[in-house]
Design goal:
The complex is a heterodimer of chains A (about 525) and B (about 325).
Chain A lengths: L2 H4 L37 H10 L8 H4 L16 E4 L3 H14 L3 E4 L15 E4 L6 E5 L4 E5 L4 H10 L2 E3 L10 H7 L6 H4 L6 E7 L5 E5 L4 H7 L8 E11 L4 E7 L2 H14 L4 E7 L3 E8 L2 H10 L9 H13 L5 H18 L5 E2 L2 E2 L2 H13 L8 E5 H18 L3 E9 L5 H4 L11 E9 L8 H18 L14 H5 L1 H14 L12
Chain B lengths: L16 H6 L6 H9 L4 H8 L7 H5 L6 H14 L4 H11 L12 E4 L2 H4 L2 H10 L6 E3 L5 H9 L5 H8 L7 E4 L2 H10 L4 E4 H5 L3 H4 L6 E4 L2 H6 L1 H15 L2 E2 L15 H4 L5 H9 L6 E4 L2 H8 L6 E3 L11
Parallel strand pairs in B: 1-2, 1-3, 3-4, 5-6, 5-7, 7-8
Helix pairs in contact in B: 3-5, 6-9
Classes of the chains: A alpha+beta (about 525), B alpha/beta (about 325).
Bound molecules: iron/sulfur cluster (2 copies).
One iron/sulfur cluster binds next to helix 1, helix 4 and helix 5 of chain B.
Amino acid sequence: MNNQNSTYPRSTHGAPPPCPVAADALQGIPRQQTNPERWQGEQWASFVSALQQAGVELRSAQHNTGTYVTDAGGLAYGMPHGVVIARNAPQIAALMQLAQQYRVPVTTRGGGLTTEGESVAFGGVLLDMTGMSRVRHIDKAALTVRTEGGIFWHLLAESLRREGLDYLSAPLNLTSSVGGTLGVGGIDVNSSKHGCSADQALALQVVTPTGEIVECSDEENAELFQRVILGYGQFGIITEATLRVRPYTPLRMHYFYYGSLRDAVEDLMRIDRTQTCDYSGILTMMDKAITLLVAFDSDEREAAFLKHQRKTLRGYGELPFAIRTAAYYALRPWRLKEALYLYQRKRELFPDLQPAHHMQGGEMIDRTVVFSRAVWKHWGGRQMVIPDIASSADKFVASVERGNAVCKKYFPHYTLYCVGIKLRAEHQAHYELSCIPPDAEGWAYGCEFEPMLGDTHHSRDQLQSFKNEIYDIGVDLGTSYYRFGGMMKGYIRRALGDEVVDKHLEMKRQADPAMILNRNVIF
Amino acid sequence: MSHTKCHGCSLCLLSCPMWRQERDVQYSPQGIFKALQHNAALSEITPALFSCLLCGACDLLCPEQIDITGTIKTLRRAAFSSGEHRALKKEIESQLKRPTTEAKAEANTIIIPGGALRSMPATLTKVQALLSREARAVLAKDDGDDIALALEAGVEISEHRRHSFLEPLQGAKRLYVSNGLLLQALRKWLPATALCALGYSLSQLSELTTKLTSDDLYLIEARAFHLDHQQTITHYDQLRHQQGCRTNLDLQRNAIPTAAGGLNTLHPTIDSHAQGRWILNGHRVARIIVECAEDGQAMAQLNEQPVLHIADLMEHANDV
Ligand code: SF4
Ligand code: SF4
């Protein structure tokens, strides 16, 4: 690790750095100060009047712009000059043409669930995509859905369920928007089977940074499709998407408990390779109570797993693990506080993972809601930092163990969340400069490291240093990250290398000559 | 006020009919609260404040446990005080001044059916018969529809009017109340009385519920449902599983309201036709069964399936 020199590089106050994706690329501020420079509003008045003439409504009262002042992370704060509620592709096209002409930054926002300020507008226009949140068409025979890009996954799930269908995989937090998710990945506990959400997209309608409305897919305008999928909003705004869906099934959950991170992670990767379960993931309370969850879409799959795979898992059932943990703490009475924390958290959390009215005959009928609500209730908060590492399978144990050590150093209470992501060989081009590490084959693995901040105050410096230390592990091991934009964009070049970054930067310059769409997210 | 606790998670949007219609965060608790946090004048949030149906779904979703509907009612009062919606306020005040009867209802059990159910005499007779099995239930002379409207709008109710409404109810041990907002207020005003939601009570009668089939869509009255969510969710979930009927519960297990009746009739903001369509969306059913008369009227407007009040699952009142 060589992070001593690179973590806190010298400030370049005032002058924009020569390279916009350098370690200190947030213009005019040192790394630990996390907000980028605000756009100063050059040509704003002319832009506003041109927008008015084009019939695009712009809201600029303080109470309109203030609604979008931060994202789910609650650490980056910025005010747009004005807000446009997305209504249709032609409206967005008109906005982008004028924004390009007047060089006004446009920041898109769906659910605002970024944590690094990626959906916060530091001046310019905030384009609220949730205004485009209707399901256009469900094709039950072809198992596809066409939806507007600003829709929350929750609303999509609601419409699909009425037809006995379900999405393939979506982020656990269902107030994420479909368009935003396709731009960054989208990981669920069934990503080990179905891949990330971005891999479910069959076709997109995109408004380009210069304001053209283009339909794209693997067959039509394939290059644009490749760039927009997992493109962190740099190459276009997703106004509509066609997604693969599947027949709805309730699921049967099983939990196995571990005292060793390594054992749990190895078991997770092994059962993913066997493809014998439909959902899998790890959720921990620090490194003391590690839960491997597996779930199934059918009784047959469940029975086969329990017969053949269960015996190969090193995890315990609930009671044996409780006895083991009690014995551990009985021998270490000075850690009573930690034991009480684990006990309390389990008591609060577990009922919410199987609420009676979302269960039926032992099956979970609404994973959509259960996970999403649990995420907000037990992991959400006014401030959230969730640094992560996305690695190939062979680097994953080391990533998790080293990240865990960093968590321990900074916070008494934290959680790790690990899942596998099945890769699609034919989508290799989509994965370039994304959270999918270039050396991953078959599956990529992601681990999120989330401190339980609660109401305790933590300085931004402390939180940023924590994130940096996690990300430095990624640099050292040669991994990627899920959240590599916004405040963490200084890591892109260091983690993924000059060649791929320069290639994408050049493509971005061509696609977005004024560099106005979602600036500061990556470039 | 508790709106300062809103951190913009958007969860309240998920079941919000006002947001669903507008697809604009301004029309949601999040939008209202964030605007207030950024110095919005009341006049700037008035359209959203008066579009809210006070259905109560958001109260159950907010992780900050903000009393959203309570806050909206308070803000409505403040908006009226600052001169917003003068005509609406006047109209509600004039309704509150209408003559009322103060006849004392000599009964242990009283039903307050509300004007809409009262306009369906045959159904009301069945309701009365069904709820009279343990003790004879009498119909209140005063439905308090004006009071319910004032509660919804945030218009002050004079002591005289409140007294004239409550006086005949004082001696009762049990009240069945159709309107969810009235039910909520009565629980404060008459703390010693057993106060039951009328629709919920009917839905507990097996002679009615056993007639529900998997071809039915059962419409739960949203406000009363959300008011007692912990209890009602278990009950309706069982009903759904036992009878196989569809319901108007969304994925969050909140009840989708029809937007019929109350303030939305006097000051229409939410399209109850579109709400009805959304409730029906994807459900291929033969009948719609409602427990609230206003919901029945709204669903009948769609001219799709026959709409029945739950009490009408029984053919004759003397079948009880
Ligand atoms: S009470 Fe109903 S209509 Fe009003 S804000 Fe809440 S969910 Fe929306
Ligand atoms: S659910 Fe509560 S905290 Fe979240 S946006 Fe709505 S009002 Fe705010």
